[in-house]
Structures are given as C-alpha cells and as structure tokens.
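Ligand: nicotinamide-adenine-dinucleotide. Inputs:
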Amino acid sequence: MPTATLTPCPNYIGGEWQTPSGATTPVFNPSTGDVIAACPAGGLAEVEAAVEAASLAFPAWRETPPVERARVFFRYRQLVEANFDKICQVVSREHGKTNAEARGSIFRGLENIEYACGIPTLLFGDSLRNIARGVDCDTINLPLGVCVGITPFNFPAMVPLWMYPTAIACGNTFVLKPSEKVPLCAILLGQLLEQAGLPKGVFNIVHGGKPVVDGLLTHPKVKAISFVGSTPIAKYIWETGTKHGKRVQANGGAKNYIVVMPDADIAKSVENLTTAAFGCAGERCMAGSTAIAVGAAAERLLPDLVKAAKAIKVGPTDRTTQPDMGPVITAAHRDRVLSLVASGEKEGAKIIADGRGVKIADAPRGFYLGATIVDGVQNNMTLAREEVFGPVLNVMRLDDLDAAIEQANKSAFGNGAAIFTNNGRAAREFTMRVKAGMVGVNVGVPATMAMFPFTGWDDSFYGDLHIQGKESIQFYTQQKVVSSRWFGGDVGDVWKK
Ligand code: NAD
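Predicted complex:
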C-alpha cells in the first residue's frame, strides 16, 4: 500500500499531546489512495485518562463566568478564520472534499463557534417574583459535567464543531472521539482551541474505534453523548448510552427526497438537484438522493439533469486545479456504492448517467466514482430503501403530489425533503405533510444553520433534543428551579417604605 510521510496523529488528554503505542488504522488520502497517517486504535487506558482529565477540569471551568468562557470562543473564532486555508487543506486531504466544499463546511462550523460566543445570553434562566405570596422562583441553567462527541467521516470539521463549542461554552468539559477515517482535522482544531487559551483538560481528543466508543458510553463519569453517524450505530449509541444513564442525542443516516412539480423552474431544479445529489460526492446526510419527477416534469427535467451529471468533472482535490467532485472516502465504500447501483440495475432500474467506469489518469489509485443517475427506481428495490452515501441519484416518476408525498413518507428515515414548485398551495401542503424534520421549498439542501436545530426524525435521529440551536443549550445543561422566601416582616412589606 503506498504510503506518504505519515502525519502524526496524537491524542489530546489533559492538555498534553500524546501518541499511544499499539495498534493503528490507516488514514487515506482518497484522492491518491496513499496512506497519510496511522490513527491510534485506542483503548480503555486512554478513555480513562481523558474522562479523568475532563472530570478534574470541570469544577474550575463550571465556575468560570460565562462571559470569560465566551471570550475563549471569540479568540477561537479568530484563530479558525486565520487558519481557514490550512483547515480546508486538511479536510480535502483526508476526506476528499473539493476546496469549495471544504470551505462551505468550515463556514458552517465557524457559525457554531459564533453561536457559542453568545453563551451569556443563551444561558439566561426564567424568573418570576411573587409566584406565591412572598415567594420568588428562578430557573438556573447548569452544566452537566463530562460530555462526549462521537463523529462521522463525512464532515471532519463541521460535525465536531456542531458539538464541543456549545457544550464547553455551557460550562461542560468534553471528550471528542473523531472518525478514525479523518482524525487529522480534529487535531488541528484542538491545537487552535489550545491557542485560544482554553484551560487544560476542558477539551480532550481520544482516537479509536468501537472499544473506545464503548468505554465512553459506559463510563460512570460521562454525563452526555452527542453522536453523528450511520443509523445502526446511532441506534446502538442511544440504546447503550441511555441504558447507562446518559443523556444521548444520536443523528443517523438518511434518504432524502426532492420532488419536482410540473410547474417548477426546471433550470433551477436541475442546478439544485445536481448540487444536492453530487455535492461532496453524495456523502452528506442531507444529500438529495432521490428525485421524484411529478407528471410532465420528467420529460422536461431528465435530459438536462443527465447532461449536467455527465458534465461533472471528477478528480483529485489535493492539487491547485480543482475538480467539480472529489473521490469517495475509501475503496471499500466505493465498492459498496457500486454494488448498490448494480442491485438497482438487476432489479429493473435503468442507468441514464453512468459514472461507474470513471478513470483518473494522474490519480489511478484514488477512490473515484462519476455522477450516476438511475431512472425507474421502485420502492421495493434495495437502492430505493438503503442509504447509498455516494454520487448516485435515484429517479422515480409519479403522477401527482399525493403520490410523491406518499412515496417520501414510506422512508424509514426522516432527515430532509424538498419540493421545487411555483405553486404556494403545493409547497404548503408538502411542507405540512412530508415526514421529515428539515424541509426545503425551492432549496435543495435544507440543512439548518447553527441557530436552528438539526431536526432529523425517525431513523435519522434517536433522542429528544437535537444538535444546534436552543435545543443544544437545553441538551448541554440541566435546569434547577429555585423557590425562595425570606422571613421577617409580613407579606407585602416590601412596598411599605
Ligand atoms: P459510522 O456510523 O460508521 O461511524 C460514526 C462514528 O461511530 C465513528 O466515530 C466510528 O468510529 C463510530 N463507530 C463505527 N462503528 C461503531 C460500532 N460498531 N460501535 C461503536 N462505534 C462505532 O458513520 P460514518 O460512515 O463515519 O458516517 C457516515 C454516516 O453518518 C452516514 O450514514 C450519514 O448519513 C451519517 N451522518 C448523519 C448526519 C446527521 O446529522 N444525521 C450528519 C453526517 C453524517
């Protein structure tokens, strides 16, 4: 296996960067197929050390006034902005996003840091004087303690940033377990947080796979788990974490429908569908992975859509000249996507744009797939039901809006859905009836920004309080309600002077 000079991949525990000895897993540059780092497989010793460090740092951090906590994140924001290009390069190198995609994702992350800067007002409680005669009532939002984040490969900067800035700003301490496929970005983000002046032990990174996750899920000192990843693991995290008394929010996979009505602006629909389906090589939980062409929309939509897909240039993202679309994460993942497309073909669907044979002359070992469109997909096909997570767009043709909503609502997932139309009535009906937590009207990827919760439903989310927005403040705090009465004098005396 070709190996470039390996980038160090240390854990960050109690303010120290340490590389454990022992087993590792290879980290690839998917553009070239080269191994670029060896991610520590980790174990219980590192879990114990990180949770202990976070636990020891908690009392002082909890006591740090929210304005001072916010100042750390103001400095962090400046540092992330100053190192924007460097972070982009790391994201492109270990994940394969194009520079534009990496930039977009880091902006979304940056907005979460900006959100955390508002923590003094976000932590306000409620207050009512004289709730009963002479009695006052106040809610106080208090941190939980040690919180954990377990993140997927597809957004190496953005998804961790969905979690720890808010958690830490709320007064918690944090242990991040990044994806073992993309561990390098988390290290850079951790170094910048250290430079921003965060006290030692407040933020920690432990690399590894299942044994590390299990150690964190069951550790008695861990209070809350934030997870983002595939549905089976999300369900496992939620079940195991809650069984061990933790608060859990676990985002899972998705299968998102985009409905194109006959009255839609077809040029805009094509543009948005292309970005939604093939942006980030389809490796997005908000990817528009199925287009439903309603009635006459199909004849107008499909020729241009196929043309747009065939025009997408695929190639390495670690060079000056940027392609439209980069590789997928690993060779194994590419093979899984290929086998799902093959299953659709075998079950009777028709491939109308075929990206399977794409070859990149100057990066022959990279993990590439071209944009692929599969027409005539039926609900009973594996391709219709399973998350593909690659540059593959399914097309279904249905007669009317009712049938389109009924089809979208058959999905076990419930992350996103979108409609393209110029008819307000159709848009309203779709937004009300479709079974998904994030809905777009003439917006192909209705992923929410930092101020709004990332509201997956059904198999796309396990838990009660979502990541981002006010729900994240509620998730990372516990409320105390204080009722107080002061003796001396009669009720109503305060008004007498
Ligand atoms: P994954 O579930 O394989 O891995 C996610 C994390 O779980 C990683 O840190 C990994 O080390 C850990 N993990 C993997 N297997 C485990 C096991 N058996 N036990 C304990 N921990 C385990 O997901 P992935 O392939 O890295 O990411 C892609 C998935 O993430 C897709 O399904 C995508 O839809 C989903 N995703 C969802 C959202 C969302 O907000 N809903 C956002 C991004 C990605």
